Amino acid sequence: MLVDSERAYRAVASRDARFDGCFVLAVRTTGIYCRPSCPAMTPKRRNVEFFPTTAAAQSSGYRACRRCLPDAVPGSPEWDLRADLASRAMRLIGDGAVEREGVPGLARRLGYSERHLSRVLTAELGAGPLALARAHRAHAARTLIETTTLPFADIAFASGFASVRQFNETIQTVFATSPSALRAGAQKRRRSDAPAEPRTGTITLRLPFRPPMDAEGVLAFLAARAIPGVEHVEDGVYARTIALPHGSATVRLEPTPTHVHCRLRLVDLRDLGAAVSRVRRLLDLDADPLAVDEVLSADASLRSVVAATPGIRVPGAVDAHEVLVRALLGQQVSVASARTSAAALTRALGEPLPNGDEQLTTLFPTAQAIAERGAEVLTGPRKRIDTVLAVCSALADGSLQVHVGRDHTELVAELQALPGIGSWTADYVAMRVLGAPDVLLASDTAMRKGAGALGLPSDVDGLRTRAKSWRPWRSYAGMHLWHAAALADSHSNTRRTA
């Protein structure tokens, strides 16, 4: 269990939405499982049991509540905080690894035997990898049923089911209704100005998060680094191209006070689950902002900035290889210079996007393309060019694995063992790719400048010592320091202009 049963019941009794996604409540007398904040009458303690995942509840014979939709909630922040085998497996399952590679492929990526992996997941999460993947498929199928007019046969295979019969049986078991009834119910609830998407591969979703959320800060971070043709930020909307396992896609994200409005255009609908998982990680939508702010506010030097910017997020990644390459290009240069280098690389080696538009035209270059032709395009110090080419060669041939299922310590050690990669780059990649919540880039010049502006130690050793009290949320504290540095620069420029 991720929370003890007594604490879980108190959360249910108070309908505390902070715990949505952290566990589910199952009621023995009704056979239904719910999210903690379900508005239904709170059942008696003796009639309930708690499960860490929806898959565990389904495996025990419970079906999803139609009123609170327990599968349509933010994910648990525990998957990033714990970073153990079960957590890393959950990240990969959410990315669709089982549908694409099966349990053997999932176990291979994690570096364990199938038997050991199944044993750990069953003990920790109440369900094995197949059951967890089944719950993931059921949620993806429900999304397609309710938001598109696709035939059910197409939805079945797009969601990863082996047959239409398996699809129908799973929907009936999990939701206690048929696909036709689910679609009919969605049509009744839908507003007249929000029709279902046609059969074009375009899907509109509402991505939930735990408030508060500093959406403006996330968009500002992404806008400062946006590569023309790959990314675009305008009027509070972030858009970008994505390379997914079965094809390309574009996504447009518009944060609102209660959710992120997401519009996906997919070449292959089988990529829906992976796309949603990666977008959620990009915006850090599964974070627990109240827990983060409570710890950071305990430091008097951070209290005011936390109050001014509640719910700060750590931007993640939709493409692990892209983040690594861009981090290498950004070593010891400004954000603007790194962006210029990445843009030049993309113009030369990026693959044109099929059916693109004026804003989104190109996919970021693959590691193989950079390894083969990067020497013709890359500029700057010879050492940096050699590092980028060597790393991309290792990514292309598989000798270097960078993905959400990697162990934090092992990944950082492997990266630092490569010539030309220092601790800053390795930690930055771990923070963004793995969603590591407790990384402090103490050697970063801007971060130390922000620390000085807040009255914190600005030397590396002093900052690291002070940051011990920020555990396990030092990545979020670092975002506050970067923000403080940007404000200090803005005030300085204003004074010079005046």
Folded structure, characterized:
The structure is a single chain. With 498 residues, the protein is α+β, with helices and mostly antiparallel strands. The protein has helices at residues 5-13, 54-59, 78-82, 85-94, 97-110, 114-125, 129-147, 152-158, 164-175, 179-189, 215-224, 272-283, 289-297, 300-308, 320-329, 335-349, 367-377, 382-397, 408-416, 423-433, 445-453, 460-467, 474-497; strands spanning 24-27, 32-34, 48-51, 63-64, 202-208, 231-234, 237-244, 247-255, 259-266, 351-352, 362-363. Strands 5-9-8-7-6 form a 5-stranded antiparallel beta sheet. Helix 16 packs across helix 17. It is globular. The model has no long low-confidence stretch (mean pLDDT 93). Residues 87-185 form the HTH araC/xylS-type domain. Keywords: Activator, DNA damage, DNA repair, DNA-binding, Metal-binding, Methyltransferase, Transcription, Transcription regulation, Transferase, Zinc. InterPro entries: Ada-like_dom_sf, Ada_DNA_repair_Zn-bd, AlkA_N, AlkA_N_sf, Alkylbase_DNA_Glycosylase/TA, DNA_glycosylase, HhH-GPD_domain, HhH_base_excis_C.
Q: What's this model, at a glance?
A:
The protein has 498 residues and is of the alpha+beta class.
Strand order of the largest sheet: 5-9-8-7-6
Query: Judging from the principal axes of the Cα atoms, what is the shape?
Result: globular
Give the class from helix and strand content and strand pairing: alpha+beta
Q: Can you count the helices?
A: 23
Number of strands: 11
Radius of gyration: 23 Å
Largest sheet: 5 strands, antiparallel
Task: Give the low-confidence spans.
Answer: none
Cofactor: Zn(2+)
Protein name: DNA-3-methyladenine glycosylase II
Keywords: Activator, DNA damage, DNA repair, DNA-binding, Metal-binding, Methyltransferase, Transcription, Transcription regulation, Transferase, Zinc
Catalytic activity: Hydrolysis of alkylated DNA, releasing 3-methyladenine, 3-methylguanine, 7-methylguanine and 7-methyladenine
